Amino acid sequence: MARLNWGMIGGGEGSQIGPAHRLGAGLDGEFVLAAGALDHNPEAGRAYAQSLGVAADRAYGDWREMLAGEAARDDRVDLVTVATPNATHFEITKSFLEGGFHVLCEKPMTMTVEEGEEIVKITRATGRICAVNYGYTGYSLVRHMRAMVARGDLGAVRVVVAEFSHGHHADAAQADNPRIRWRYDPGQMGASAQFADCGIHALHMASFVTGQEVETLSADFVSTIPSRELEDDAMVNFRMTGGAVGRLWTSAVAVGRMHGLTLQVFGEKGGLRWAQEHPSQLYWTATNGRVQVIERGEADLSPEADRATRVTIGHAEGMPLAFANIYSDLAEAIRAAKDGRDMDPAANLYPRSEDGLRSMAAVHQAVASAKSGGAWVNAVPPFLR
Ligand SMILES: NC(=O)c1ccc[n+]([C@@H]2O[C@H](COP(=O)([O-])OP(=O)(O)OC[C@H]3O[C@@H](n4cnc5c(N)ncnc54)[C@H](O)[C@@H]3O)[C@@H](O)[C@H]2O)c1
Q1: Residue 353 near residue 109 (C-beta atoms within 8 A)
Q2: Quick check: CB of 39 below 6 Å from ligand 1?
Q3: Cβ contacts of 60-69, under 8 Å, gap ≥ 24
Q4: Ligand 1: which residue has its CA nearest to atom 5?
Q5: Among the listed residues 137, 114, 153, the one whose alpha carbon sits nearest the alpha carbon of residue 305
Q6: pLDDT tens-digit series, residues 45-104
Q7: How far is CA 150 from CA 61, 155, 173, 212, 294, in A?
Q8: At what angle do helices 89-98 and 113-126 cross, to 10 degrees?
Q9: What is the DSSP letter of 269?
Q10: Residues 218, 121 share a domain
Q11: What's 144's domain CATH number?
Q12: How many helices (H) and strands (E) does the chain have?
């Protein structure tokens, strides 16, 4: 089967997230990095793309040059990943969708709800794929949790508890370090810092696993280091469309926590507990039963979990392999569209532009709620009500 041509914008040398995308996209041999505008510095971007094997005429200096260059080719890229800083996502994603390309955009998809609406409208009008990289939903056991909830193992979901906490910004003496300070500056970060950057992954995962959307929320934001304008810790209570009650805590000052993305789901018939730092174990307890450990890769898991597991049971899988599952879903979606057939339902799990829009609405509504002392607000974007 011919490999799909893949292009990347951002993710240049030394970037945080670029390598995880390249590992993920390359894992199954579905995509080949064929084009890129990888860096804000055109020369550095061209040179780095070529060092990764991109042909000189497709190692572009900036994304507009790439859009024009790829649009003119017969073998144009099948998918473009946008992994630049947040404020550029909207313009680049919109331009490539309008140019007829499929896009995987890093989160946040946009900075405002209005921009998010526009991306959803363009996606629907063009019929292009616009995925958003809530990449942690690619973990095999996260997909298994979703399958367990969907097939009724838990009965009605009563309570969801989501966390995403780390302690990397806890040192007040470092608060003015420019590499940290910009993250709490509304001019660069937008309306929210910790909730928009990390909490939103946990909120999206709560929806992904339960199959319920966030309907209303009440937020408490705090800047524990007073010089910070934006929050470094937040608690958000929410209610979901299927009646589940949600609790979410996110923090950047949780000393000792590294990448504490966890999800617990409690239903009538049992409870689930999963943590990103130990992604190969899922804890399941039936009501009145004993705690059981479900291991990634063991027999008789769901088709969604089986499809998303790559290495043998007992060996570590991590974040780039979770990203690989998003890429694998997208490869299947692109091939199904080319062939005019339905896609494998076990692959039809990648986060959509609608998820990006819902997240943006949740961020802005959480900011509004926090400013009004925790008032309950509608979290559903007007366009999707
Ligand atoms: N999904 C996740 O788990 C996850 C994790 C980390 C970061 N992210 C997201 O990924 C994005 C990038 O974050 P990062 O931490 O890698 O940032 P970074 O600052 O480490 O890297 C950004 C890269 O983009 C390049 N760049 C900047 N402007 C550009 C432009 N106009 N054209 C082309 N290249 C440009 C830079 O030169 C650099 O190589 C952010 O939106 C962030 O929110 C997502």
Answers
A1: yes
A2: yes
A3: 60/35, 60/36, 61/37, 62/37, 63/9, 63/37, 63/92, 63/95, 64/95, 65/37, 66/7, 66/9, 66/35, 66/36, 66/37, 67/95, 67/96, 67/99, 69/35
A4: 17
A5: 137
A6: 999 999 999 999 999 999 999 999 999 999 999 999 999 999 999 999 999 999 999 999
A7: 46, 9, 47, 10, 17
A8: 20
A9: S
A10: no
A11: 3.30.360.10
A12: 13, 14
Q: Are residues 145 and 71 in the same domain?
A: no
For 34-49, give one letter per residue: b (16+ CB within 10 A) or e. Answer: bbbbbbeeeeebbebb
Q: How far is the CA of 204 from the centre of ligand 1 (A)?
A: 20
Residue nearest to atom 24 of ligand 1 (CA): 10
DSSP lists the bridge partners of residue 147 as none
Residue corresponding to tokens 């550029």: 88
Q: Do 227 and 116 share a domain, yes or no? A: no
Residue 215 and residue 99 share a domain: no
Q: Which domain holds residue 233?
A: 139-311+353-378
Report residue 127 as tokens.
């019929």
Q: 181-225 pLDDT, tens per residue? A: 999 999 989 999 999 999 999 999 999 999 999 999 999 999 999
How many domains would you assign to the chain? 2
> Is 75 a domain residue?
yes
Distance 73 CA to ligand 1 centre (A): 27
State the residue for tokens 């409690």: 266
Distance (Å, rounded) from C-alpha 255 to C-alpha 240?
31
Whether 1 shows a pLDDT value over 90: the answer reads: no
24 and 113: one domain? Answer: yes
Query: Token pair for residue 232?
Result: 């470094």
Residue 8 Cβ contacting ligand 1 at under 6 Å = no
Ligand 1 atom index nearest CA of 84:
24
In short, whether 323's Cβ falls inside 6 Å of ligand 1 is no
